[in-house]
Specification:
With about 210 residues, the chain is of the alpha/beta class. It has two domains: about 140 residues, 3-Layer(aba) Sandwich (Rossmann fold); about 70 residues, Orthogonal Bundle (Arc Repressor Mutant, subunit A), CATH 1.10.10.10. Helix content is about 50%, strand content about 15%. It has ten helices and six strands. The chain has a six-stranded parallel sheet with strand order 2-1-3-4-5-6, with helices on both faces. One of its GO terms (molecular function) is DNA binding.
Length: about 210
């Protein structure tokens, strides 16, 4: 896995570099200290995964994540920050981040988060996940206005969405439902369009809020 590290604190970058260089399946191909530099670097290097800080001079990590997701959606961005509040968690997920972890995370857990992102899976710090679900349940983070029912989706779309809520990647869903991975991607795109949501994390949380699979 080719990684780009983004943080404005040299000591944080150094610590990440020292640990991640020890992982046999990971290679650090670039480092940046702000969002503008990160965007330029990612466009040039096209890494597999980006570890992104939020609070940085110039362009912040959320805006950088949004621009990376728009131009290179195949690049997986994991937010790694000290902040876990409603002003950061939901905006980061909406910007396209596939993971949200705090800098207090254990090193081995961070490595597994990176591997999960590479496989197309989403991993959130428990505090971030709890806040995200609470925002949707209370309506403070949900701009979806249409009162859809689960029957708005086809039977196969419901099956795919149910698997998404368990954190499975497209490849794992394809194996579980015995269909092609390309077919899963088509169903995911259709689900997001019908729910008027931008990514699979939002779809999973929306389904949880509605209690569709409980």
């Amino acid at each position: 896995m080719r990684l780009v590290l983004v943080d404005d604190h040299p000591m944080v970058l150094k610590g990440l570099r020292l640990f991640l260089q020890m992982q046999e399946d990971m290679e650090i191909v670039g480092e940046a200290s702000d969002g503008n530099e990160a965007l330029t670097l990612v466009k040039a290097l096209k890494p597999d995964v980006v570890l992104m800080d939020i609070m940085m001079p110039g362009m912040d990590g959320i805006e950088a994540t949004r621009r990376i997701h728009e131009s290179l959606p195949e690049v997986k961005v994991i937010v790694l920050t000290s902040f876990v509040d409603q002003d950061h968690v939901l905006p980061a997920i909406r910007a396209g981040a596939v993971g949200y972890q705090l800098k207090e995370i254990e090193a081995d857990e961070l490595a597994e988060t990176i591997r999960a992102a590479y496989r197309g899976m989403t991993q959130l710090h428990p505090k971030a996940a709890g806040l995200l679900v609470n925002q949707f349940v209370t309506g403070t983070g949900d701009t979806h206005t249409e009162d859809l029912t689960v029957e708005s989706l086809t039977r196969r779309e419901r099956e795919v969405l149910k698997e998404i809520t368990t954190g499975k990647s497209n490849k794992e869903i394809a194996a579980e439902l015995v269909i092609a991975e390309k077919t899963v991607k088509t169903h995911v795109s259709s689900i997001l369009a019908k729910l008027e949501l931008s990514d699979r994390t939002q779809a999973a949380v929306y389904a949880m809020k509605k209690g569709w699979f409980t």
